[in-house]
Design brief:
Length: 73
């Protein structure tokens, strides 16, 4: 699941807030089955993205980076 989400924890530089939020959005899209939720579900969808982004940021701050540096594309 979520194979398109790239690893954000690397040795070279911390993930940006935009990268963390993009990964959270991709995760919520996958789990919910919505690319864009209906107006009735939009609040819950956006709240989930923000909660997952926050939890991901806390995780990235708490763990030690062991993956090699990203390769320049």
């Amino acid at each position: 699941m979520c194979r398109s989400i790239k690893t954000l924890r690397t040795l070279d530089e911390p993930a940006s807030d935009e990268e963390v939020r993009a990964a959270a959005l991709q995760y919520v899209r996958k789990v919910s089955g919505y690319r864009k939720p209906s107006p009735a579900n939009e609040h819950a969808f956006n709240h989930a993205v923000e909660e997952i982004a926050l939890a991901s940021s806390r995780l990235l701050q708490a763990v030690t980076a062991t993956h090699p540096a990203r390769r320049a594309s």
